[in-house]
Amino acid sequence: MNVNDSEVVVSILGKNGYTLTGKAEEADLIFINTCSIRENAEQRVRGRLDHFRKVKSQYPDIKIGVIGCMAERLKEQLLDEEKMVDMVIGPDAYRDIPALLETVDNGEKAVNVILSRKETYADIMPVRLDKNGVTAFVSIMRGCNNMCAYCVVPYTRGGERSRDPESILNEVKDLFSKGYREVTLLGQNVNSFQWQHPDGHTTGFPELLDAVAAISPLLRVRFATSHPKDMTDEVLHVMARYSNICKSIHLPAQSGSSRMLEKMNRRYTREWYLERIQAIRTIIPDCAVSTDLIAGFCNETEEDHKQTLSLMKNATFDFAYMFKYSERPKTLAQRKYKDDVPEEVKTQRLNEIIALQQELSVQSKQQDIGNIFEVLVEGISKKSNEELFGRTSQNKVVVFPAEQYKAGDYVNVKIQDSTPATLLGEAVK
């Protein structure tokens, strides 16, 4: 989401006479695009601000702005604490950047963190910042209505609103015409995408997914993220119908304990989640499933933790993002619950979750050895200029000898070995 937001900002600035540079010393303007979803993310932003403080001491005319979720959360506090920050701009105020720059030119600090009920930037064609020209992100909606107890997103990105499907299809068609071969449809909860047309009929996520996949069989389609409570069989059947919709679903569980899920306000149970996993395995047998997991949420017991480990074994996740619970300001959990799991217990539980997922990920990759997968080439391998890398439909990275292939090609690759993170293979003629 932040990558796509940066691309929107670059587009807006491009129409106002700015061009992109990769060197801070060449810049007239530096924006730090921020995330507040975990405390660690905010600490990393502080580190970047320290770096740019030194840059500004050398080049005092540079304007520095903080944009995104952290800007929304901390507002004027950033201007007070970080004296070299000139602008603080929330995720719904990017259109106002040119006017805010004029304010700064007049010697004043500029702030706009007003959240919108309507802003989707649907009419702005993002300037792609990716290096490969093969894969791109397309935002289909903004904000979130789910109000999970631990999550700051509804407070920093506002309520849920969907884009006009026609604008989404036009953006995807434009990307395909420019040589892109994969798009990822983005939303905090893509399953709740809904657009009411003037004639009264509604486009939901299954219909949108179907329409995007129908643009071309040569265009791969991914999406993220899905909320388990809204993952319907209808979506799964659309995925099964199109070979170019990638067989990979990110389905955040967060916990394997129904008690914890209720406390988290996730609005599903352990049983519901596992039933959704079973539906995926039945309707799309070759689908990979990844997840998010939180260790040490408020009042989590050892039994709750064991249920998370049990869920992982049952679901056999291919990959997971795993975190210790990090209390975020203004959330329901911060207001209502005590962050009472000791830090050392959080760390121990997280380590157990990571260790188990490493086993599951290794098993998943080993099961691929000997099989042939269609790989979309994304670029040259980091370790060797004579090797290429790409991903399978299941979102697994594959490295193989380059031969005559190039970025954007579809190549059938036979998997011969694997590392903990990567599949290794050779192209099959």
Explain what you see.
- With 429 residues, this protein is of the alpha/beta class.
- The protein folds into three domains: 111 residues, Methylthiotransferase, N-terminal domain (Rossmann fold, 3-Layer(aba) Sandwich); 232 residues, tm_1862 like domain (pyruvate-formate lyase- activating enzyme, Alpha-Beta Horseshoe), CATH 3.80.30; 56 residues, Beta Barrel (OB fold (Dihydrolipoamide Acetyltransferase, E2P)).
- Helices cover 36% and strands 22% of the residues.
- The strands form six sheets. A five-stranded mixed beta barrel has the order 15-16-17-19-18. A four-stranded parallel sheet has the order 1-2-3-4, sandwiched between helices.
- A hairpin with a 6-residue loop joins β15 and β16.
- The chain is globular and about 65 Å long.
- It starts with a helix and ends with a strand.
- The mean pLDDT is 95.
What is the CATH topology descriptor of the largest domain? pyruvate-formate lyase- activating enzyme
Please name the CATH architecture of the largest domain: Alpha-Beta Horseshoe
Total domain modules: 3
Q: Which structural class do you get from the secondary structure elements?
A: alpha/beta
- Major sheet strand order: 15-16-17-19-18
**How many helix segments?**
14
| Percent in helix | 25-40%
CATH class of the largest domain: Alpha Beta
Quote the average pLDDT.
Answer: 95
Q: In one word, what is the shape?
A: globular
Keywords:
single chain, 429 residues, alpha/beta, Rossmann fold, pyruvate-formate lyase- activating enzyme, OB fold (Dihydrolipoamide Acetyltransferase, E2P), four-stranded parallel sheet, 14 helices
